[in-house]
Amino acid sequence: MPNMSLVKNKIPEQDPMVRNKNFKEVALGYTVEQAMDEAKRCLSCKNHPCVAGCPVNIKIPQFIAKVAEGYFEEAYQIIAQDSSLPAVCGRVCPQETQCEHLCVRGIKGEPVGIGRLERFVADYHNAHAKDEVKRPTPNGHKVAVVGAGPAGLTCAGDLAKMGYDVTIYEALHMAGGVLVYGIPEFRLPKAIVNKEVEGLKALGVKVETNVVIGRSISIDELMQDEGFEAVFIGSGAGLPSFMKIPGENLKGVFSANEFLTRTNLMKAYKDTADTPIFHGKRVAVVGGGNVAMDGARCALRLGADKVYIVYRRSEAELPARAEEVHHAKEEGVIFKLLNNPIEILGDENGFVKGMRCIKMQLGEPDASGRRRPVPIEGSEFELDVDTVIIAIGTSPNPLIRNTTKGLETNRHGCIVTNGEDGLTSREGVYAGGDAVTGAATVILAMGAGKSAAAAMDKYIQSK
Ligand code: FAD
Ligand code: SF4
Ligand code: SF4
Fold first, then answer.
1. Which residues line ligand 2 (CB under 6 A)?
2. With respect to CATH, is domain 142-238+395-461 assigned 3.50.50.60?
């Protein structure tokens, strides 16, 4: 008998006023009973619309049916056919606009908690399965991967399983990309990412950290001098954009990237960490995406008394995941919607002492289809803040473009591919993830890494 409850099983969470002072994971995950009960809400629809909503087409009804029967490892094996990072995606995918958006149970009531079930299954597997990694038989071919984010890790994993000798080159001192330097511990414990990286190493993948491709060595040199037959570029979109308003150089102004990297990767929130970070008491985070929410929630946890999200459109246009906005509000983040900064004000020592903003209203839709924010004349006001975190977007770093012969990029600096399997304008060079799409999602980056790996194999085998 299906469970016809109109609402999802709630996922246990830390109390908002407790968790806003610690970096432990917010959501605690389903118990076995809760997972099985939630799985019974799935109707195993014949035409399974949910699957079309998943960018990698995970066989959702099939894995959920196994959860309902209590066969959790079998459920994991079904997910693993299409996804390499279920413990990650179950936590951070924007399910509400993807798989769950198309779930028929969502027509009248809440959709099936597909993401929560995916997370449960992956966590169950990680806790119970014995890791018996069989090293694949080497096929004698050598490939390189630039960047150890979800795109690069997935591509490397798939190629290693086919027998390739794979080396990942990563600019930072740790593998994981945004999963380790951007997304905070309280949303995605780093132990999960580290386990994935260790799994790749066990398959034979070499991970060379602190190597900046384009500075330490170029892609051309990797191919001409080091014997790599193909290269995958998964270098992400880590170059922050700024507002170009007066005061952005003041002390106490951070790009979200810097603020989150210091906090998450360099563990500035721990008393034992060497990394200094400015502990602002009144913090404005400019932007409305996941990055802005993460910045705001980290600032609270670092001890700020007041944290504002300053966003120029309204709540309906906030690009962040609904769950992140909900969690931020619960934790005490104050939303200043339809407000736009026009100047950051400094004191005589060059520190931030406030931010001048102007109120906005929504006009006609712009090229993105969203209603254009228009300033309301004479509505300027001052926000009393000592720290400003700018989270208005990122683009790919031009280093690789500038140091690789014949690599075509578009006007946003994104690498141009054939749009199918990641082949770039340069023979043997493939690309995927944020480096191609601009800032997007983990699951899209992972999917791009997968299809590029298949294409690289085809290319090398046909040479
Ligand atoms: P990245 O994860 O950016 O990895 C690229 C890697 O390449 C990095 O490790 C970088 O150091 C390395 N690199 C760059 N240049 C070089 C070079 N020249 N040489 C060697 N290495 C190099 N997505 C979601 O789906 N859900 C979320 O909740 C979510 N929250 C986010 C929160 C934050 C704060 C941020 C910043 C992003 C978030 N995203 C989220 C987006 C998601 O993380 C990205 O879309 C995804 O990580 C892109 O993967 P990638 O592998 O293409 O790039
Ligand atoms: Fe849904 Fe993401 Fe899982 Fe696909 S990977 S089923 S979109 S949670
Ligand atoms: Fe189950 Fe919803 Fe998918 Fe139907 S649409 S198979 S109810 S998850």
1. 54, 58, 60, 83, 89-90, 93, 95, 98-99, 114-115, 118, 443
2. yes
